[in-house]
Every structure is written in structure tokens, then in C-alpha cells.
Amino acid sequence: MRWRAEMANNGPDQESLENALLQSLGQLDWPHETNIAISLRQGRLLLDVDLPEIEDMPSSQWTADRRSLQLALKPLSKQKIAFCYVDHVCSLILRLIGHSMATSTAIETVAVSAYTQRKISSGQSEDDYVATVEISRTAWDQIDRRAVDEIDPQNLLRRHGARIETNGRGIFLVQQPLQ
To answer: Of the residues 38, 41, 82, 112, which has the maximum number of CB atoms within 10 A of its CB?
Structure first.
């Protein structure tokens, strides 16, 4: 009884919670390799996410030719690929937040810093943080997840203070990661 009382007073076991979270996130299927580092401190979960690269996005799409009743493969513009990438990143972040919140009620806040590798002028790759957001359980609980088809991930994240900025061509601008 004393051990249970101590556990109740001290809160959840951090290591067990982190392991449960890693297991939960590790079981998710991702369309491209997505690496995640976690840090859990006093109910605040920090996710550091290595995103897939924009080069991993499809560069063409199938369209129907109504006259010949055939499918044709059409190349996408660089701007369309960039906009698809922004949508992919926002959806990925929203998925991570949702699964993290579902893992335990001890997680009161989820903070996500997402980065990608980009080539710099020297030809080397450099990590650039391109999206950050921090959302509390209270704010998360106000989202009507039953209407998931009607949720626009990018607008939802922005409404909750996400820093997701792009230039006119749809390319992500660099952000300061959360600590």
C-alpha cells in the first residue's frame, strides 16, 4: 500500500511512459522514413522529428484522359510538389500529436520541432527546422476528431500557434526549434 501511495504521489514512471510512447510511435506505418527523438519532462513531451525530404515526394500524378479513356502520367510542377510536401509535413505532425496524446493522459503538452536536410551552397547537407508547434491537452480535446475528413491539418496547426512558413513557391522557411 505504501508503494502504491508513493507511485500515486510521484506521478507516472517517466521511463515506462517514454517506452510506451516509443512503442506506440514505432508501430505506425509511414510512407517515407521518419525518425523521431523524444524527451518527456513534467508532462511536456518534446518530439524532434527528422522529416522525409521533399525529393521523396511524388513528381507526377495519374490523370484520366476522358476522350481516350486511358490514364496518363503527368509531371507535377515544382510548386505543386512543394505544396504537397507542406501538406504531408502538417499531416505527419498532426498524426504524431494525436498518437502521443492517446498514449497517456500524463502527457499534458506535446511540442514538435520538425527538420529536414537541405543542400547548402557548399554542396553539404544541413538540418533546417521548418515547422514547430506546441499544443496542450486542453486545446487538443477541443478538436472534433469525429469530423476528421473536414480537418485541414495546416490550418488546424496554424490556429494553435504553429510556426509553418513558406515562400511564394511553397518552400519552407527556417524556424527556431522548440526547447
So the answer is: 112
pTM over 0.70: yes
Question: What 3-state DSSP class applies to 145?
Answer: helix
- Phi, psi angle pair for 34, to nearest 5°: -135, 115
What is the per-residue pLDDT across 32-66, written as a single tens digit (0 to 9) for each?
A: 888 899 999 889 999 999 999 998 899 999 999 88
Residue among 95, 112, 93, 85 at smallest CA distance from 167: 85
pLDDT score recorded for residue 99: 93
- For helices 14-26 and 78-103, angle between their N-to-C axes, nearest 10 degrees: 140
What CA–CA distances, in Å, run from 112 to 30, 84, 91, 118, 119? 17, 20, 13, 19, 23
The strand pair at 70-75 and 60-65 is best described as antiparallel
Spatial separation of the C-alpha atoms in residues 95 and 117, rounded to whole Å: 21
Q: How far is CA 63 from CA 74, 76, 80, 137, in A?
A: 7, 11, 15, 41
**Per-residue CA distances from 39 to 14, 45, 107, 111, 178 (Å):** 10, 6, 11, 10, 12
Give the separation between CA 121 and CA 103, rounded to whole angstroms. 42
